[in-house]
Task: inverse folding
């Protein structure tokens, strides 16, 4: 942040971002890897660690010289750099700083169409189209194929009112000019697609598979309906995002992206997609017919960089960590905008992909405040998709700590009294707990538990006080007698 506390995003595209990451000393090069197995093994080795390196694969076997793949953008000190904040902030300070800086009263700046940009350094059409030459890996050993679209987002346009959207939908490689695009029901790309298909028309699409990390982060986040994510990014950078027009569809494409696949999604065309190791840690979606992009053009920069962001199954990974930072901020702001007072902290826990288990702390003001906070936290724009358990607790709990949050739940709730269930809520197809018969009907809904772990409002003054030491006493104990632990295994 600068002196007046404004974050500064120090890069405009993936290359400038990479230079910043190099300055932090966090980039490692892997040469001569095999996309069938090695890349997935590297992902397994590094993506779970909070401070794992950014890895750039060069000379991937079987791929053209100069083509690269970048893995693990959001970790280490580059985590904060990516959002424009000082490296020493904690994940909570980063999330709340991001919210304050970018989600409160900041105006979007419309993107600007420019004539040309580095993305047009290579234009492949007709017989030159070959999606298979990029270093798309098999990410997990049981995956059904190579995935080019993980660190991706797809740009589409509403055929009725022209609303542009950028959303992250995974993309499997099928052949030289066919790539899957899996849009879950209710996502903005799926809403656009349905409208085209109702008219019997193909949907034009531009799938970006390598580019500005910030654009990827916004593409994978629940931005409001009707808003173009690139106009939000313009607001974040304080200047319009430069975009060129795709030569086939006329859709806006980031002028400084690395690799873009442009084409059409046809109403009648489906190919069996998956299985793919999903963020819920299961192959829940299985292998099913899926919409595909009929590729009409590929654009890429010289020595292009494919961005890889695969989910790594059970346990926190890079994807869960960035979602936690950004979704927690989104939900906290959604709640405030919906009129919930005194929301102190919201944390979407990394376990469960930062989508399924959220802690909220409030300073209780009136009877029913906790219920209001819990129900809105469960079903606002940032949370409605796939959230499963929400725990609302008091302001003395640091809800970013899983231990502290569970402790509050265990000691301040009574299961029969404190759990409210919401039925028929929006779920992700990646949820393995959707029963097979229900999944077959396309009814991707589930129930959500809202757990009130606040001291009961009407007898809060009689609630036993906590013997958890204050931060001051804990520090005093550490300073004075912490030496007793020296030399012992913790
Ligand atoms: C790496 C990554 C992969 C994702 N894959 C999919 C996917 O395959 N299908 C899907 O519907 N949503 C997927 N999502 C979630 C959506 O991108 C996310 O919910 C986003 O809000 C969708 O954009 P939209 O709100 O503009 O529709 C993915 C998110 C990320 C970050
Ligand atoms: Mn959107």
Result:
């Amino acid at each position: 942040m600068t002196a007046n506390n404004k974050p500064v995003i120090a890069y405009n595209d993936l290359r400038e971002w990479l230079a910043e990451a190099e300055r932090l000393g966090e980039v490692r090069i892997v040469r001569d890897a095999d996309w069938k197995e090695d890349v997935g093994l590297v992902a397994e080795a590094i993506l779970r660690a909070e401070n794992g390196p950014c890895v750039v694969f060069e000379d991937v076997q079987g791929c053209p010289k100069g083509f690269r793949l970048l893995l693990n953008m959001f970790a280490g000190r580059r985590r904060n750099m990516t959002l424009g904040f000082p490296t020493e902030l904690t994940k909570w300070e980063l999330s709340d700083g991001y919210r304050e800086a970018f989600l409160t009263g900041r105006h979007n700046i419309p993107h600007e169409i420019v004539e040309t940009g580095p993305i047009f350094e290579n234009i492949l059409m007709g017989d030159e189209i070959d999606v298979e030459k990029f270093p798309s890996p098999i990410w997990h050993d049981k995956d059904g194929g190579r995935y080019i679209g993980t660190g991706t987002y797809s740009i589409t346009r509403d055929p009725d009112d022209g609303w542009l959207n950028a959303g992250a939908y995974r993309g499997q490689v099928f052949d030289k000019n066919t790539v899957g695009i899996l849009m879950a029901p209710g996502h903005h790309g799926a809403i656009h697609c349905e409208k085209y298909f109702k008219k019997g028309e193909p949907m034009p699409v531009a799938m970006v598979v390598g580019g500005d990390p910030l654009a990827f982060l916004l593409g994978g986040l629940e931005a409001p309906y009707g808003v173009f994510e690139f106009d939000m990014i313009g607001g974040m950078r304080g200047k319009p995002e430069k975009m060129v027009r795709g030569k086939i569809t006329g859709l806006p494409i980031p002028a400084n992206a690395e690799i873009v696949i442009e084409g059409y999604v046809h109403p009648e065309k489906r190919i069996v997609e998956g299985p793919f190791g999903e963020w819920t840690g299961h192959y829940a979606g299985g292998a099913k017919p899926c919409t595909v992009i009929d590729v009409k053009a590929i654009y890429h920069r010289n020595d292009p960089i494919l961005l890889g962001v695969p989910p790594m199954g059970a346990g926190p990974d890079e994807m869960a960590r960035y979602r936690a930072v950004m979704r927690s901020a989104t939900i906290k702001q959604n709640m405030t905008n919906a009129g919930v007072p005194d929301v102190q902290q919201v944390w979407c826990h990394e376990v469960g992909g930062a989508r399924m288990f959220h802690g909220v702390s409030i300073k209780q003001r009136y009877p029913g405040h906790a219920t209001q906070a819990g129900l809105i936290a469960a079903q606002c724009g940032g949370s409605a998709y796939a959230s499963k358990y929400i725990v609302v607790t008091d302001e003395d709990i640091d809800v970013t700590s899983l231990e502290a949050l569970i402790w509050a739940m265990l000691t301040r709730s009574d299961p029969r009294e404190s759990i409210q269930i919401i039925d028929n809520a929006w779920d992700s197809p990646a949820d393995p707990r959707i029963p097979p018969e229900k999944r077959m009907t396309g009814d991707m809904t589930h129930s959500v538990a809202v757990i009130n772990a606040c001291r009961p409002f009407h007898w809060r003054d009689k609630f036993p006080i906590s013997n958890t030491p204050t931060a001051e006493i804990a520090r005093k104990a550490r300073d004075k007698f912490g030496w007793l632990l020296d030399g012992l295994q913790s």
Residues 107-303 form a domain with the Pnp Oxidase; Chain A fold (CATH 2.30.110.10). The chain has 13 helices and 21 strands.
